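Cross-check.
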Amino acid sequence: MSGRFVLNQGFTDKSFDAFRTLEYNITILLREDGFSYLLSQKADGKLVGLADYNIESRMMAHAGIKAGNLLKAFAAFVMNHPWLGKPFSNPRVLVSNRLVTLIPAPLFDSNLKELYLEFNVPRPAGFMVTADYLADIEAWNIYAFHEEWSRQIPLLIPDAKIRHAASAFIQSGILFCRLHRLSEAIIIQPGTEWFEIAYFARNSLVFYNTFHYQTREDFVYYVLFALEQLNLNPEIIPVWLTGDVEEGSPLHTILTRYIRHVSFPARPDNLTWTYEFNDIPGHFFYSLIYSQLCEL
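Predicted model, tokenized:
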């Protein structure tokens, strides 16, 4: 089965020069159902381009992450794109899946990565295990992704650093709390079939997990379950909802029924962006945008 990507939304500033890509940074987020990318100027960090693509068949997406078909579709897309496969200043590829676990740095042994991960989540055949060091929380994010990606992605995106999207989500959460001087916060980022949730307190990560859901009732059940396990009062704790979720959407509406303080984070004030970004809600592409200010 083959698949192709369909543009959901995207734009590139007129100032972007496709013949001088080394003057730009690019961050690509590879999901199970598509991918996004963000362009910024190397000189001043200004955000100048964004695109979000969904894979045409959701069935292909879920089968593809096991068989490598998603990578084949992405490779075909890059090879036919006029500039996406050109050299950039700081190319990063974030891989998004639920195959993650966190280990405090003092307990980490690089020879035991597979053991750490498989203690918490099953590793599919053909998947390799690696880890990102998260300096802000002095921990390692251990994760798995298709081993063919490690060979093909550097060829498709020259000199790309591969990191896990959870690393960006966690580092971005720390930064968000610091910028807004929050003593504690819950940040939730829903996907199409699973969501990330993290609890931050005193500029540190206390809790991170992912949950599969099919209905909005599933979604709010797991959120409330996490709050209960953390002994957090839904009448008090501030909850921030990020990602591709609209105000007044089913997920947002049901969350506000049970949690008093639900908000959407805005883009960081210390970033600048071209005017097209003003047409996109500030909490969309949260991890991509905040990751521009994080060390990954």
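The domain at 174-263 is CATH 3.30.420.260 (Nucleotidyltransferase; domain 5). Confidence is low (pLDDT under 50) at residues 59-67. Passed to J.P. for a second look.
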